[in-house]
Queue: 3 jobs
Job 1
Amino acid sequence: MNGSLHLGAIDWSIMAAYFAFVLGVGFVLRRSVKTAEDFFLSGRSIPAWVAGLAFMSANLGAQEVIGMAASGAKYGMITSQFYWIGAIPAMVFLAIFMMPFYYGSRARSVPEYLRLRFDEKTRGFNAISFAIMTVVSSGISMYAMGLLLNLLLGWNFNVSMWSCAVIVLAYIFLGGLTSAIYNEVLQFFLIVAGFLPLVLLGLHDIGGWEGLRHGLVTVATAQGYAPGAFSESWRFLGSARSNPMGVEWFGMVMGLGFVLSFGYWCTDFLIVQRAMAAESMSAARRTPLIATLPKMLFPFLVILPGMIAIALAQRGVSGGLVIPAKPDGTLNFDLVIPVMLGHYFPNGLLGLGLTALIASFMSGMAGNVTAFNTVWTNDIYQPYLRSGASDAHYLWMGRIATVAGVVLSLLSAYLVAEFNNIMDVLQLVFAFINAPLFATFLLGMFWRRTNGHGAFVGLIAGTVAAAAHHGLTLPAHAVVGIKGGWIGVRHLYASEMAQNFWTAIFAWLACFLVTLFVSLATAAPVRVELAGLVYSATRRITPAVGEPWYFQPVPLGLLALAAVGVLNVCYW
Amino acid sequence: MNLDIRLPIALLFSLIGTLLIAYGGWAGAPASGPAAGFNVDAWWGTCLLAFGLFMWWLARR
């Protein structure tokens, strides 16, 4: 499939326009970066709607876009749950219950909140693991981008990685977090602009939603499932064997809906940073809620193309679409989006679609770099290497950290390119470290007896539990090794996804219980130090006089939950 | 922050929209494939331009 998409001058012009704007925004914003807070947290001045769109886009890297379409082709409508139950409740919870502590504590990062609430060692553990993970994740997505662009357009792997790295470095160096946020908002609109026509053309081609459902019935029955298994999202979650994803509803709800989703949306600094940059407490709480609306609608933009592709491919020659196969014979679902783009888009729209993909890669990388430079400067450099320096010094350090972050990302990309199985190992390790985090924050924010010893030991216990569970279980049909079972196979799961969800559940439980017991066994934290950091030591936030109901988090949150509930009923 | 983000959005989408309309007008509708006979570039370009102008209006208010 090398160099299979042919670009014309119009496509290049659209791409060039995008790059010019991205750099231009960085240059214009340079003037407004005067303090370290401007650079790392946009001076806490971002309007809610901007922060909300950035909040959602920060998560939307190209790997996510491509991966979701691939999952849509592989699993059907169930994939939407990653955006519904796997995101909305967590975002609502963050807005209503956790934002008051993140924003009210004036912490400049998630690790800093941990230092304020617990102690230095908890902060250190989180800061160092996060810094490493975020830079390596950035490298992994750069590598994926380089590979994809090489495959589709025949671009030199090194040239595409370096050019994107240089552009991202430039606009963050100049404008800091604000540049990254503005470009994330731009990316959001570009993705809609690039993918909406794809969905419209695809649906038209396959005969509308009815035609799609009809096509998916053939796909489902051909794979041995009930007719509706690819087009319905809850009905077949009764048992792991009756749906293509191989999970049952409990694993889905608790593993994905609770542990993984809350763990990510509520504690990952890359995401939370966008809400911390908002212009007020009210704006900060509205930020995740504003993000829920596009988030719950996005399955129709990124997952639907995958479902259309598999339904068309199932028709064989008459469908007109072929999903390329991997060397081992299985379908290469990661190529679904590029194949769809090439199939439906003439030059012009093709350039727009590709620009949207490249924009996603770049802003994914930018999100990692801004999170890294902030955590490095505030949570590693300032406390452990050089405290008490001037604000201008830390601003300078932030810029240096930006360069270092980009360089380290590139190094990680080459490392992963050289040792391909490292990518899987790394992503596994990151999953182990992230799984227990939410238990720590939950106990920290809502139970004042939780202390630093409990939090620290709990995090370690959770990480170990995750690794142990992975080592003792294996997905069906998998080989012992990177997929699990490396301690000894005690249990088989119907799918890798199910194993993931249950690893998360056990990790969370281990962290929760250990944190609880160790906290009770050691000295209680000093009450007065907890003001603004724990539920019972913080004044409730009362709505500002004259604030309309749709500015208040609880009504908005209930509205978001109701809306996603309606979607779930429609696509039951 | 002194830069209203609606301005770059408005400019970028107006520009891309105009480029697509111009190209669509010049190249005509695709002759074959799923979008045959339907000038998708020109149509979508118009939508994007309209969005760009809408953003511009919002920024000006």
Note: The longest strand of chain A covers residues 473-475.
Job 2
Amino acid sequence: MSRGRKPAPYGTIPIDRRNTLPTQQPDGQQTDAELVRRARKGDNAAFSQLLDRHGGRMFGLARSLLGHSADAEDVVQDTFAAVLRGLRGFRGEASVKTWMTRILVNKVAKFRRSRRVRRTIPIDAERDAAAGHRGRMGQAGRSDIRMDVASVLRQLSPEHRDIIVLREMQRMSYDEMAAALAIPRGTVESRLHRARQKLKDLLRDYLP
Amino acid sequence: MGCERTKQIGAYHDDELPAAEAESLARHVEQCSECRTELERLRAISRWLGAAAEAEAPPDVLSRIRQRIRPRRDRIVFRIAASMTAAAAAVLIVCSALLWQRWQAAETTTPFDATWATLAVTPSSTEGLVLYFGLPTNGENEADVEIFEDLLDDGEDGNQP
């Protein structure tokens, strides 16, 4: 509402908000929002770019949450299928990354509810379980670290595992986690605090 | 009694404290061994978990996922094409059946196939009523009329109708 403002000589020009949002990242690549906008119009190449850009991260997240690669692949497939179906309904209130993470977290929860956890445990993890925790923090190669992390994460409750993975492995902020998990920010903080207490208890022999 | 401010160490470690609070806590950590130990533990856990974070999916995983997810537009086009093909096939079948029926009907024509669409009754000067039926044009109208004249026979010739 304008008060005492001189009217524009040639009328007002409506602002198209879509055109004011950045369409390119500093490195010249198109932003996620722009890719979603193009994908919504049926641009398959744009959807493919979203898959390339976020697929690896989503797979890693799913694998950390579920502890099994095959399950993670199924969940990521379901997630991107849901992303494809939900393109029209995406309102841009959260970032595309947070939106997709929220879908994936829901798919993981659904997967846990509806299926039995696979009893086959990767061979490395079996060896690790037999040997007990060997205090490899910061020492071993990448695959060994990953194996030990998986065995520790399995000992957390699903709620604690989710919050730890989102924070420590996905580097999400408290607000992003609140949006992804559909919980208040205060709940994020308290849940993260309790999860860390549990982790410290599990790893007490290896911490300062 | 533990330090009250250790509760804030998590948010401080995560860079989620407002700037003023963060500065205040940073000064406190320099003085408080308990808070300093808590911060070191959280940093160790973060390093350890962060090192295990999966940065990329195995190369074949994304290609498999891409193949299994068909973009919506392609699915819609496929469905429309399938529906139209099914409809065209149905029309073809129905038309073929109708043509077959007509061809069958043209092949077999008998007097008894006469249509009953028209029925004319007209007096005849010599033989009473003559019934005419609308018959297929098979050139045998006179014989058919004879048959139906018999039906009207009043016994004049001594024979029973």
Note: Chain B is about 60% helix and 5% strand.
Job 3
Amino acid sequence: MTRYRHRLWVATVLLLLLSACERAPSPWNLHDISGLMPPLAFTLHDGLGQERQAKEFHGDVVLLYFGYTHCPDICPTTLANLVSATRELGEAADRTRILFVSVDPARDTAAVLQRYGQAFGPRVTALSGTASQLRALSRRYRVSYGYGKPDDAGRYEVSHSSGVFVFDRDGAARLLSTGADSAAAISADLKHLMGG
Amino acid sequence: MPGRRLIAATLLLIVCTGAAAAEVSARHAWIRLLPGNLPAAGYLELINSGAESVRLVGGQSPRFGGVELHVSSDPSGVARMQRVTSLNIAGGKTVVLKPRGYHLMLFQPADDLKPGGRAPVTLEFSDGSHLVVDFLLRDATGQ
């Protein structure tokens, strides 16, 4: 009996030691990419055809997403989810910015970008760039995109990275959402990132 | 006899428009409208109350230039969208067309479509039947 108790005690201690060896649980719902990706930097243009630099958005938490407007399902679903995540922050939503970067500049003219961004509300800014500006940005964050073969009507699909990169107010890359994260999960991380 | 003519015309109309889909019903049908003439996506649940499986093979709408069946996928973090020719609905089963999965891709929306409004889409099935579904129109954010 005593020996049995002794064994139980040893097992308990071992279990406690093992659990202490495990990594502390991540405080984030999204993937922590701190130190793995370079800070936010780009030169693109907005829906008014004005050149926009990443540094203009410093001071806000930035959510960066790549897509194209002739994408009726995944792109608007993702943007709507990000909008609802920022709305859950209440007043702090004003210090967030969702940047939608179209990788389909052939169809996404400034006028199309302008109306598209507005359709998602004031937190969303739709941007695009020249082929070389987009290449530079996609290489920086190791994202890919490609164009399918046009059909008889000249329509083509664009494959694009589905991740959403989150940058803190200083422009440092901090989190990556893989697309399936709920608005509540994203919102909780944004709040944490803003020190709330 | 104008009455007979009317009956004949009605019969002809029924024959020409094909059989209505008695076994398949729809619910929670909605469309996400995007600004301008950008293509929209349609979502709904299709319930096959019959014993036989049936395939959704296409659609058309007086309010859109074209209707296609598409599926989105996200293998290894890259979003893709592909046209598919049909979607099977097994007997007694429900198939859900929802964001990030199967959806209707609706091209060239009519200029006067507005969130809060409605638009009919006629769905076509492999057995030659069809189903007219009234879709609720929502804005880009799905509201």
Note: The domain at 2-138 of chain B is CATH 2.60.40.1890 (Immunoglobulin-like).
